[in-house]
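Deliverable D5.2: sample structural annotation.
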Amino acid sequence: MIQKRTRVWLTRLYPRSWRDRYGAEFSELLEQCLRSPLDILDVFLGAVDAHLQLLSGENLTWRMMNMLNKIRTTILIVFTAFIGFVIAGFALVGMLDDSPMVPLMRSTPSLAVLMATIQVGAVIAFLSVVIGGLPLGWTLVRRALQKGHRGLGLLLVPVISFLVLVLYVGFVFLVGSGRIQLPGVVQVVQPGNFPVGNKLMLSGILGIFILGALASVLAVWKVISRTDVEQEAFHVGGRVQNIKIYTFAFVPAVITTMAMLVMLIATLLWGVISFSALPQVFTANYGPWQTSTSAWFIGIIALMSLCVLAAIFGLARNRLEKID
């Protein structure tokens, strides 16, 4: 059983207004149910729920509010995990570019099937995120417009981040095709010779992508934390239907998580088969900036695994009733 001092400290993670209203009930539940590290982690995420404060009401007990808030935080966790998984996938593409593993895939059917599985999984995960997020996105935009454009700027962060990335990639293409000349940058990189200019351009792509992804995640979290809506009315087939936007997004979140798990397994199998056929590649430097192939691949698998585990935990805690 967790000590009283720990229970008090965990309770203080929650906002003061929340503690004033639910503290006694919550402390009693902790004394009965807090028994493992996973329970403590769930309390941490519950504190995130409370600080977001999207759902509240005078007639809600802590149990009712926690149940309603959990599904919202679940969607946010899966969305964040998906963004992290995309970053890992981007690193995988960078590692494969111009490496001996590309022609190997063309001559090895099993590798081609695994890569196709990864690509199909990426499309399914992306479409699931888009479909699941459409009602939420539309609701947030509509509410932002109704409140005098407050929060609309944050919603533009993902759009602006994407446009900046597209513009920079277009610039890199122009440089690579020779239409724009930059000192210290060569069009074709020779093995063992990676100019500083080329390294900086590649760093720019990775940096813009990662920073844009992080900014987008933070912006989405911030906008949602300012929105106290759980359902919205939509015109569907000429009729008005009330849609619980977070409940609607739960099934797409499950599909996204399953797609990420399949992609993780396919990537791991792809690596085992590829590096068994070309062990010299695994010990060579085919990572970005001609860095260690093995280090990059292990890092990619680690990041993918972390994202999948986070998404699975997010989904699982939404169904747990131990500390509800």
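Annotation notes: Residues 151-225 form one domain. The two ends are 18 Å apart (CA to CA).
The annotation will be released with the project's public dataset once the embargo ends.
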